[in-house]
Amino acid sequence: MIRLLPPLLAVAAFAVVPSPVLAASGWLNWRGPDQNGVSTAKTKLPDTLEIGGPNHRWSFKVRGAGTPVVADGRVYAFGFYGETTDVEETLLCLDVKTGAKLWEYRFRDYLSDTTYNRYAIGAPVVDAETGNIYLESTWGQLFAFNRDGKLLWEHSMMEEYGRLTFPNGRTGSLAIDGPLVITDGITANWGADGPARNRFYAFDKRTGELVWFCTPGIEPLDSTFATPVFGNLGDQRVMYAGTGCGNIVCLNVRTGEPVWRFRLSQSGVNADVLLAGPGKLIGVHGKENVDATHHGRLVALKIPTEYPTGPKPLVLTKEAELWRNDDFMAFSSSPLLVNGRVYSTIATGSLLCADAATGKLIWSEKLAPDQLHASPAYADGKFYVPMHNGTVHVLRDAGDKAQIVSVNKLDSLVLGAPAFYGDAVLIFTRENLHCFGPKASAASVPPSVAFTPEPAATGPVTQIQVVPAEFALTPGQAQSFKVWGLDAAGRRVREVTAEATWAKFIPPTALVKSEVDGELAGATLRTTPAAKLSAGQLQAKWNNLTAVTRGRVVAGAGHRETFEALPLGQKNPAGEDVGFPPLPWLGARVKWHALEKGGSKVVTNRLDNILFQRTMNFIGPSTLRNYTLEADVMTDGDRRVMSSVGLVNQRYLIAMVANSRILEVSSNHERVKESVPFAAQPNTWYRLKTRVDSDGKGGGWVRAKLWPKAQPEPDKWTIEVRQEKLHDRGAPGVFAFSPQALKRVYLDNLALSANE
Prior knowledge:
This protein is an all-beta fold. The chain contains one helix and 63 strands. The two termini are 25 Å apart.
């Protein structure tokens, strides 16, 4: 659920008067103005980058693994502090001349499995039109700030859309195009979007409302942190990106329609693509190829030059390859295109140069023992090439070989790309953010440039779009919608909300015939305090055009669930009579079943897919706070083999870890993890009661009771965990972990109430 911070910005339509305005300018995203890591500015940059040397301007003590961005003399850096339990991510705003801190916003990990301090791998992005800054945390928290650090809106992608996290912390950078800020990730949402897929989500950059979402690929084997690259296809605005299912995809930016895809790899494509002229795209990956057992490949694709008609997405085949080069194995290092040549670092620590017309290797220069992540960048006729071992190589292309200008040893590992601004080069290491440039009395700050908004749409309305595209309400809440009339190119012509008619809508292909438990009054859906958990679509109609939005009624304070109303009638692989959990539970349909046990209906985790041996599913809004969540819990097994079952309360997981004979409170396991002994027995019902209390000063307590259901509730809490920095809100949820998918867990009599 969107969290807006008052006062709200004035909302403007997509179509604005196209008069130039002075707005943010500089190195606004991690790949620079042309989305390719190349600076065309005619500015002299330093040849050497030596800490403490003549070109060392300043350093700031913060750990980072991505790329800083710069706008109008301000550096925006995504970093982190700490080692173990004290890890915090941060968005920093620094003065580019001095490195002085102007403002900072810190945030803490929750419920992710990020390990190895794999934090802050992405980058902020600055909107040229508004000067606002956007960032996604490692675990999927989206933030929007103004240039002075005021939080404008935020989303929890994990709790609202079922975004999954991964130990390697792959998040990457958001992307902005026109009125939209776009993210992607592996999500397990609800309904048809319940299965885990690599999905893209586009939000209105001013309001945070979801404009569209899209599933362009197939089942993923990996996550990815590639950033979309934008372009035009006829009169349509499109974007190109790698996905976790090994595809390069093309999407319509304004509507989210999938246009085409090409399968490049068995696993994720993490490097950004290059647009190499009309009808030509260059991509690289470092995983196993789809048609060979070796890893890695650089390819050039012949891509459509006109927007396709008919069914989409088109699936491009091997015939789309113009050339391929198997010397390139670049895992997440993105390539460069300079003067008709492609440059990329590869896993074995070399920088390779190939002809962009033929793919033929021209030269290779060994720079370091290995390289997996950091991308090279180009400016002032020089390549700045960070390597994993903490060296940054400055070199030129001498035709048939590389000409080394300098080799600079920094203070720690380098995982991100350099950024350029005026006469400065900025580079993150795992210990500091460094700025290099001539030590003049005043560092060079380029002048602001005029920004011209997209021209107003003047064509006829040929399609409509409902915003928000997805919603979630608790009983007693209401949601209002807007209906926009779009032209054939997907641009907003005018709002037609007042002229539209509305109805609940069940798609003919829906597996579950369900409606939202609420009443429509024009463009507003209202739920009563007695509304039931439910989900469905709403359809808006205007002038014979239709569009839909979809949403859920989720659990709020006062929710009770015995599961007795859930229908059965399906058969699982064991032949049992089963049904499905409540439809509004995120990602739960493929991971839980309802069945009868002991004369009543309960829910149990499914063991028919070992990939789902661990599951966490949210049942309420991310904005909920100060609540008690409780349920009956039980595990199958014997004294040697049992499973874990638990509840999520305000971004803390409280679990009966039966195999370990403990009751455990955790969030990210490396950041918050405390337990007390509890000798749970198999096939025995227990009552688990959880509660989070704030102390009003930023800290608080996570508390839980666990006792045999047949006995009275104990007076004392079984565990109390003090948190000096408490998560002050979070969605309620359920949890199961069955190692090797051997033993089930069960849940019954779920209850959610406000703290007394």
